[in-house]
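#random but structural
TW: two for the price of one
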Amino acid sequence: MIMNVRKNLILILFSCFIFLGCGKEEKTIPEFKSVAPKVEKVTQNNITIEMTATPGQVEFDKDVILNVKIVSTMAVAVDFSLTEDRLEGFEVVGEIIGVPTKNDGWIEQVNQYSLTPQMSSDIYRIAPIAVKYKETAVSPVRTGWFPTKPMVFDPAVCVDVTGDDNVYVDVKPLYVRPTFITIVLYILSGLGVLAVVAFIVWVIRKTHEQIQVRKMSPKERAMRELSKLMGKHLVEKHKVKEFYLELTMIVRRYIERSYGVRAPEQTTEEFLEAVAQSPIFDSKTVEVLKEFLESADLVKFAGFKPEQDSIDKSVSTAKKYISTDSRNSEKEGVRNV
């Protein structure tokens, strides 16, 4: 009996030793190195837009909370909208539009957006957002817009506090290499005999087409380019920005071919300054071109999404200017450009 008690005691002690020896080692979970919230502020025409992002970096275990504070006078109506096309590396997963509050002639509104970072992205950025406003206290009502400042975020840095010294590790998106089959398909597609033959045929047809186009007058070429642009149906495909880029370039190339003004290489401000100082263009024409190009810049560079009526008006303006330009009723302009 004593022997059985000893055996049982030994088994109990041995089991306790194994249990204690195999216990899990307690570890401290690495934490993100904290940074201050990122703040960008812009003020124009009695309007202040203050954007605060918390945290001020990309931490993949939490969303970035973006608070947009809009302050303006009661005589100004402000239109601010955060859309997906202004985000790189983020996805909007939540939106709270604040209730405007009035105080001593000022209106304040705070909107909140929850942005989830995408681990597959290399860039985390909030592009400039078009802030449109309308001054209702003047007659006629005055409208305008201005952009916010961009916000660029760096990936967070992990702090390993398990050792004696802190070790900082950069958190970077995981790069997934293409498969072998995918690489082979790309090579075969690039070197395919049919692709080479098709390319040669395309070059021959394109060369012949360019020869015929260069024989046209600037007006004929511009109207032909407008017809091709409308045939692409870019607006119906929701490619409004590309549509406006091509539309403005058609007008700019027409001016270059007709008057020798290097319009395609100039910014809108440089071009308008040049035509305003030129005796070739009258004040009415300069005003038409100014309204046309500045409304297009709003779409191309500020992410503004125009209504169908505005798009139709821009197309009509371009057609009317090209077809009624007095230069084309007398000369063919500068060809072969």
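TW: number two ↓
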Amino acid sequence: MKKKLRVGVLFGGRSGEHEVSLLSAASILKAIDRKKYEVVPIGISKAGQWLRGGEAQRLLEGGYADGASPGLGDGEASLEEIEFAAAAAVLRSGEELHIPPPAHGHVPQTIDLSASAEMAQPSSPLAGLLDVVFPVLHGTFGEDGTIQGLFELADVAYVGSGVLGSAAAMDKDAMKRLFAAAGLPQTPHITLLRAAWRTDPKKCTKAIEKALQYPLFVKPANLGSSVGISKVHARTELPAAMDLAASFDRKLVVEQGVGGPGAKPRELEVAVLDNDVPEASVIGEIVPNREFYDYESKYADSPENPSVPIIPANLTKAEEKAIREMALAAFKACDCAGLARVDFLMEPPSKSKSKKKAKPRIFVNEINTMPGFTSISMYPKLWAASGLPYKKLIDRLIDLAVERQREKQQTRFSKI
């Protein structure tokens, strides 16, 4: 009988996207094929503690005082739902992580794992007891190369981009420089430091207004899920937007809006999959229920007024070809691996009455190396529409992690 791969599903984390990570992990833990994988849920609290499901046994035994299991509704729960609820309880328990040993082999009954240099050793519990790590971590300390560096030092296979790809794609300033080097079209933008803004906001305002035209988008360079992003229609709105972005990062990226005042560009997305020979999915479009696709549009608004995904997007053949090619070029420019979602902005249709209308311009907006991964998130939906269902997508990502680890083992790190 073929040995099951032991997959650690890592979720939570210290970033502003902690809750988004929980949603993604919930879907993965529910859908992952238990016949192929032995799954180990691992939580990281907002304080950065690596945690175990200390309440898991109580959950299974129905030992909660109020008779309710956290994260579960009424009715009989499936094994997957129980295991996710146990993993989510991790984040409330505040207990240090113990990765249970596999059923086979002679190893201690529990392994203490602390967030220290011990984890970075190839002989550590992280590497010794897990075949693959699926880091379902969004944003800072999870998608920015930091956790990937830990996995590299531990010599354990993991899903997604490596240190460089993760860091480059996470930092919007560095990302835009790589896109420019690859010749990809981008909206005009400027990068400022938080220290410069706080020292001399008037000078920064002049620099912004000299380079760009309103409306503007102000973003922290290192964050995702539209956290900390503001649309600025006029100078009076700029200070609050800059202060908000500055609360999340030391680098602030200011972009010129596409299409000018009053325009609402089309927001297009492409899912990319594989390592050295990436493939692009069909193209999707998001019609946000707000002025732009912000955090509330993605996660917080009521179901009565949702943002609307359109898959596939209504585009010409030439537009589809150009966008998919740019998505692959962006993936390669940042040295990504495994998965990424590439987002585009397309000028709205021209209102000119001229018979010969200019073709709308398409701009690469950003790349996301660990996009939202719920079963209704755009990345899985784009692949489902391309013929790869959610459960098979998880299989493919784990296979790619193993493939990349084997390829890395062909590399010599010393002369001897």
